[in-house]
Amino acid sequence: MNINDVIDFYNKVRFEISKVIVGGDTYIKLLTIALLSRGHVLLEGIPGIAKTLIAKSFSRALNLEFRRIQFTPDMLPADLLGTYIFNQKTLDFEFKPGPIFSNIILADEINRAPPKTQSALLEAMQERQVTTDGRTMKLPEPFMVIATQNPIEHEGTYPLPEAQLDRFMFRIVMNYPSPNEEIEILKRANIGIDESLINPIQVNIIDFINYIEHNVYVSDDIITYIQKLVTLTRMKTDKILLGCSPRAAVVLLKASKVNAAIEGRDYVIPDDVKSLIFYVFNHRILVRPEILIQDSQYSSLGTYNVISQIIDEIIKSIEPPR
User: How many CA atoms lie within 13 A of 191 on its CB side?
Assistant: First the structure.
């Protein structure tokens, strides 16, 4: 395996998904980066902009087992992880695996589940295992959670705690399509195009993960650059209440390696880091509430845009290595 194999793999994934998804190149790239760096993704957007469809299309293109889990206020951890059922034939309790035992999990409207159920995902996302009734079981590989949430509705929802947000490699905010993209969506809907058109790609994902992990070079200068960017989020105490954790630095490093490979390089450059920093940082930075009210520079902007501007300031404050 070499870098050309990684490029070819990514191009095939993008081609197959583009048969169904219009204007989703950025989303496809970020999902691919997350998968190849063992990360998870939080998709945020209003209903009807293809959050579920892009997750289903992504798993189909990669020929991976996919489960969609609809999170609801009455959902219990056992509904996610599985439970023990008494078998009358063997006169013993047998474990019935829950839907989490799949390669790609779509946690639909994750913020509608109560905190106890949300926390059941923490071990799965970080340790790639689940523990129930004192028994620990490994999850299949690869394993990836794609969670969705609607940022508009707040009634009947439970905001994700910071500990769980930190488990997501990226938060991707999906916006409305452009007028031309929406016209193309309508044309495809008119003739009945769906995900059955996607031809699954027959590859071993773990081989690509291992290749990138061991063969893409990261210099000490790049590592220092990432560390400075993360540290600055903790030092801007005038605007940021909570900065990024060391986990943010680790996932930014891993994601940058995959981005470099997709771009055809076996080494990371500053542009790899800068192209991903917003998606890694935006859900990990907690802005001081008074900034949204008192500072005229930000008061007219929404929280998401404020975070975007602060991240831009951080990028411009650190000189990248040459």
Answer: 9
3-class secondary structure per residue, 129-162: EEEECCEEEECCCCCEEEEEECCCCCCCCCCCCH
Using a 10 angstrom Cβ sphere, with 0-12 exposed, 13-18 middle and 19 or more buried, the burial of residue 31 is buried
Spell out the residues 6+ positions from residue 20 whose beta carbon is closer than 8 angstroms to its own.
53, 57, 188, 193, 194, 195, 197, 198
How does strand 170-173 pair with strand 41-44? parallel
Model pTM score: 0.91
The answer to whether residues 216 and 266 touch, using CB atoms and an 8 Å cutoff, is yes
CA–CA distance, 235 with 70 (Å, rounded to integer): 39
Dump pLDDT digits (tens) for 174-216. 888 999 999 999 998 888 877 788 999 999 999 999 999 999 9
Q: What is the pLDDT of residue 143?
A: 94
* Confidence class for position 64, pLDDT limits 50, 70, 90: very high
Q: From CA 179, how far away is CA 109, in angstroms rounded?
A: 27
207-221 burial, b at 16+ Cβ within 10 Å, e below that, comes to: ebbebbeeebebeee
Handedness of CA 186, 192, 196, 199 (dihedral sign): negative
For each of the domains in the chain, give its residue range(s) and CATH number, in order of start. Answer: 3-197 (3.40.50.300), 216-317 (1.10.8.80)
Q: Mean of the pLDDT values across residues 10-33?
A: 93
Identify the three-state secondary structure at position 172. strand
